[in-house]
Design brief:
The chain is an all-alpha fold and about 110 residues long. It has helices at about 30-35, 40-50, 55-75, 80-85, 90-100, 105-114. It has six helices and no strands.
């Protein structure tokens, strides 16, 4: 098995938000998503999961982890700054999700990717 850091599963290309999306750090509400597509919240989440294959929460976490991976490998920002920039609500949540997705801590991921 390779020691290179592994990338988290990426969201489908058509569903990836731009890296500079101004809302990536804001709280995403199901009611807002549903209203934007003129569906009830329950039906919008069912359609989302059937289409994308994961729940909205899982998708948002995937996007945040992917952004954190990008920042870890391409910037010299501190890990705490990356957690905030990627949209994680706490440092513990950042470590939990990145470590789970990558199989190593964020610092190890950065060290092995450089």
């Amino acid at each position: 098995m390779s020691d290179a850091p592994r990338a988290v599963d990426q969201p489908p290309a058509g569903l990836r938000p731009p890296a500079a999306a101004p809302h990536r750090r804001s709280r995403l509400r199901i009611a807002d998503v549903a209203a934007a597509v003129h569906l009830t919240p329950s039906h919008a989440m069912t359609v989302f999961r059937r289409t994308v294959g994961v729940t909205l929460g899982q998708y948002v976490t995937m996007c945040r982890v992917a952004e954190a991976q990008r920042l870890l490998l391409t910037t010299s920002l501190r890990v705490t700054e990356i957690a905030e920039e990627a949209g994680f609500g706490s440092l513990s949540s950042f470590y939990e999700h990145v470590s789970s997705a990558c199989g190593m801590t964020p610092r190890e991921y950065r060290r092995q990717g450089r």
